[in-house]
Amino acid sequence: MKFRTVGIFAHIDSGKTTLTERILFEAGKISAVGSIEDGNTESDSLQEEIERGISIRTTFHSIPWKTTFGEYQIQIVDTPGHIDFRNQVTDLLPAMETAIVVLEAGSVVQSQARLVMEELLLAKVPMVFFINKLDRFGEEYLDTLVSLEEILGEAPVTLFQRDPEGKMEYYLKAPTRFPKAVKEELISWNDDLMISSWNDTSGQTDFTMIGLHTGPKEGKLYPVYGGSAKTGEGVRELLDLVLWTEPKEPLLEEGIPVLVLSRRTNEEFGRYSVVYPTSEITTKALDGFAKKTILPVFYEEGGFSFVDPETLDPISTLQPGKLVLLKENSGLISHPGKRLQFRTNGEGPKDTNPSDRIPSPFSVVIEPEHSDEKEFWLCRLEELTWEDPGYQLQNKEDTGQLVLFGRGELHLEIGIRRIRERTEKKLNFSSINIAKIELLKKMSHKVALEHRAFEDQKSSGALIAVLEDTADFSKQIAFEVSLPEEVKNSIETSFLEACLHGFYGEEVAGLRFRILSYEMPKGDLQTTLTLLKVAILAGVKELFPSNTYLVGPLTEVDVMVDADHLGVVLSDLSRRNAKVESIWEAVAGKSHLKANAPAQNLLGFSGALRNMTKGIGISWERTAFTSEFYAVLKE
């Protein structure tokens, strides 16, 4: 049996989950097609997914599929479309062999689809495109193809057409019915194919099929089919096309040949990971290697428990490309998007993803109603952050509070809802907090700092320094004079303490403290250091009121709304001090709107938008807080 792992990617509301549902129906895995509106799809099983009509976490489905050129087991991976859950998409890319990118007819390629296409190109995953909703928009897909060409840098190949009677035709089933120009596109990307085609006077070899087979993997050919996920038109043909194209081969790197795709928790099964073996290996071999590598405190005899996701039967030999489940083991580190690792040092690395996880500017403070229930809630939160490393948890021992960081407003709302499920225990939580800092304005200010006490008999000594801005959010200190270590430590800690609270009460960043000279007085060193600390704290803070400004994360939003609703949406954005970047008329009476505003101003906007438009939410949003991408909050 040949296995093929196929990811389905799309902009939110383009029909990705509907396509997955139709594929399961066509393969005989389900007897009836569920709908997002009715909340009965196979992919969206969480209560939040059903209520909101969006995918929140990745789902995996295995289906048998028979073609004229072989039998396959297709492992369908249905990914979330909302930007808050983007980390789940990037975690999957190393294991994706082929990608189906769903595009919506009657529209240009939308923002989230554009973003995921750029990531698929970078990961060199072969792509097959499916223009969905042709049952609603008919032949209105020219704009889609034009914007697709702009993103890819070359023209995609349209391999579907309607016959004179209006019936859809697809290239794999009827290649002879397609124009000569289409056939030339399938071989023109490869000079050797073109030459071989010219030299084959007998016409016995169909080089167009060879080109279609190898072109997507080489990143030279982008086939496009079209149809309707809702009615099923073109879905079976799409799967045949995907299987005909050559898959990406996984990178064979050193270490355990197992990629971790996702982590889950099941009440009966416990903690487990969905994993993708890149080469054949037995659990016996892994166990033997682990016995030599993992410290005894972490080693569990026969601890590699792999099971089949369909039958839950134990697996002793992992087949390349066949997704399996791995039960949690204290001797293993299973980071989504990374290879499985052994835990090899005394304490074991913290179970958080590496530095590629950018801390989120969104957070919420959590406090149990009863202090003796803190461990209960801490356990639930740790379960949430284990399953989705996009969340981060901070335990504030001094106040008894817990702080949950998330990737966005929706991400945090769903996280809170999930930990509160199936319990009558009460939990208090704050509104969503937005990270803020004070940024030093462009300046370079020379200061002379000194503090006297005890009727001017004691002095800190005269410190000459320059306070200047940096190019980022960093805080730096530089010494251009040789000083005793105790003095340097006192100056550094005093400077950092002064930066903790600026004029607006936030941490000050983006500044450098450059020490030019220091005349240390005679006398007791400890008294001198104490007075020096006061001089620096007072002198540096004195500069903040007129030289810092408050900044926070900036959010960009992209909305597709009916023209009838445009006025009320613009009014609400104006009330939130948003800057409208562009408005243009799309097809089918819709307007495409892009705007940006401080993230704190847009809290609740997604829900308000759904109310204003009777169901339509934000199509795409991005929130970032970097030295190049931020919003000024007030002067």
TrEMBL record:
Keyword Nucleotide-binding: yes
Key words, A-Z: GTP-binding, Nucleotide-binding, Protein biosynthesis
Keyword Aminoacyl-tRNA synthetase tagged: no
Residue span of region Disordered: 337-360
SMART domains to which the protein is assigned, alphabetical: EFG_C
Superkingdom of origin: Bacteria
InterPro entries according to UniProt: EFG_II (IPR041095), EFG_III/V (IPR035647), EFG_V-like (IPR000640), P-loop_NTPase (IPR027417), Ribsml_uS5_D2-typ_fold_subgr (IPR014721), Small_GTP-bd (IPR005225), T_Tr_GTP-bd_dom (IPR000795)
Domain Tr-type G: 1-251
One MF annotation (Gene Ontology) recorded for this entry: GTP binding
GO biological process: ribosome disassembly; translation
One Pfam family here: EFG_III
Name of the protein in question: GTP-binding domain protein
